[in-house]
């Protein structure tokens, strides 16, 4: 009897884990950086390479960081959403141009529109690694103290803006 009971029990446990896993949202990957200070960084700006900005320049305001690249197809999908949102957003939207050629990135923004207050250059991907970027696009909401409060993985959708990002920004600014 035990000979048949153990494999059945193992099978039921496996089915249970599979059922729980299938119910999870793949865009909600837990980040160890949520509620932790954003990583320190300072880098040049895409459109003004002689100028640099970093985390310390944003302290005191709520800001959103969108990690993007001209070679990223999913970034192209979210881009019109960001362009539209930037026209009415009450918070600065910064871009982190991740592992990209500056010339290609500038052409991409010129052709599709530039929603960013500024775009940071991250050619080697070190800043993205420090932020725990799995792949582009990813978007972070950072509070006035420089603490990461939210991470969105994948293209930002109108629903994600309406239901999660905008309410959080309002709460943090309030």
Automatic annotation (TrEMBL):
Its main location: other. The keyword Disulfide bond applies. It comes from the Bacteria. SUPFAM superfamilies: Thioredoxin-like. Residues 32-170 form the Thioredoxin domain. Signal peptide: none annotated. Coiled coil: none annotated. It is found in: Cell envelope. Keywords: Cytochrome c-type biogenesis, Disulfide bond, Redox-active center. The keyword Disulfide bond applies. Belongs to the thioredoxin family. DsbE subfamily. This is DsbE family thiol:disulfide interchange protein. It comes from Rubrivivax benzoatilyticus.
């Amino acid at each position: 009897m035990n000979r048949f009971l153990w494999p059945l029990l193992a099978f039921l446990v496996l089915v249970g884990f599979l059922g729980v896993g299938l119910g999870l949202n793949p865009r909600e990957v837990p980040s160890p950086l949520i509620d932790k200070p954003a990583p320190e960084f300072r880098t040049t700006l895409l459109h003004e390479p002689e100028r640099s900005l970093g985390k310390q320049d944003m302290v005191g305001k709520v800001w959103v960081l969108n990690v993007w690249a001209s070679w990223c197809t999913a970034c192209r999908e979210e881009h019109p959403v960001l362009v539209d949102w930037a026209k009415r957003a009450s918070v600065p939207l910064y871009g982190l141009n991740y592992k990209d050629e500056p010339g290609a990135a500038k052409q991409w923004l010129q052709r599709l529109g530039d929603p960013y207050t500024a775009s940071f250059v991250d050619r080697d991907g070190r800043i993205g690694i420090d932020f725990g970027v799995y792949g582009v696009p990813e978007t972070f909401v950072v509070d006035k103290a420089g603490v990461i409060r939210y991470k969105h993985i994948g293209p930002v959708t109108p629903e994600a803006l309406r239901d999660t990002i905008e309410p959080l920004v309002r709460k943090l600014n309030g």
